[in-house]
Specification:
The structure is a single chain. The chain has five helices and eight strands, in the order H-H-H-E-E-E-E-E-E-E-H-H-E. The protein is of the alpha+beta class. The chain has a domain of about 150 residues. The protein has an eight-stranded antiparallel beta sheet with strand order 1-2-3-4-5-6-7-8.
Length: about 220
């Protein structure tokens, strides 16, 4: 009887010990506990200065967020080094309005605005409407023919308001391209010296009466 009781006691000891010992922690439970502790200490990410500049550059290049842009078109050739800038703004999903201007050290000036619609007719057409004004102050005139030298130069100037509209269509976005447009402008000549008036009159065979009106000549194009 005593041996039976001893055997029962021995057989129950390991199970009792196992019941009292805590279950060993698994790898999953350790990771879950670490993540739960980390969640209580979360803070928002503060980008560095370099990250801010990179994010801004990416936004500008991918979404067209750059409004101010350089512009180097002179009012007329021969004006010298040109400085200019423009401001472009979206007025709808794709259409833009661009106002720009330039100036040279010799006094050539240009200012114009453009409305651009690049996705007409199911993305097969582009419409451009431009209106502006330009002034050239020292346009060189050497007369006609080929027997001219630098000494024959005579300067004149002009002012010109202008407007134009251009429509480009590529039917079905294929290889055929059609383009049409209309342009109008007024040209106001200004002679800066009697030498310029004489040179132009001699080369173009103007009469004395015609050359007298040269500074106020107007041409409609």
């Amino acid at each position: 009887m005593t041996s039976i009781a001893t055997l029962i006691a021995i057989s129950t000891l390991p199970s009792s010990a196992r019941a009292q010992d805590p279950e060993p922690a698994t790898r999953v439970s350790v990771l879950e506990r670490a993540q739960a502790e980390k969640a209580t200490r979360l803070t928002p990410h503060v980008p560095s200065l370099a990250e801010k500049y990179l994010d801004y550059a990416e936004s500008v290049l991918s979404t067209g967020g750059m409004h101010i842009h350089p512009y180097f078109d002179s009012a007329y050739s021969g004006g010298g080094f040109t400085l200019g800038a423009g401001y472009r703004r979206y007025v709808s999903s794709y259409n833009t309005v661009d106002v720009r201007g330039s100036i040279t050290f010799t006094g050539y000036k240009r200012i114009e605005g453009e409305f651009l619609a690049p996705r007409l007719f199911d993305r097969s057409g582009v419409l451009s409407v431009i209106g502006g004004w330009r002034e050239a102050t020292q346009v060189g005139f050497y007369g006609t023919g080929t027997a001219n030298s630098e000494d024959d130069r005579a300067n004149y100037g002009f002012k010109q308001p202008y407007g134009m509209a251009t429509l480009t269509v590529r039917p079905a976005r294929r290889f055929v391209l059609m383009r049409g447009g209309v342009e109008t402008s007024l040209l106001f000549f200004e002679s800066h010296a009697a030498q310029a008036s004489t040179a132009i009159a001699t080369s173009l065979e103007f009469t004395s009466d015609t050359i007298a009106d040269l500074p106020t000549q107007r041409f409609l194009k």
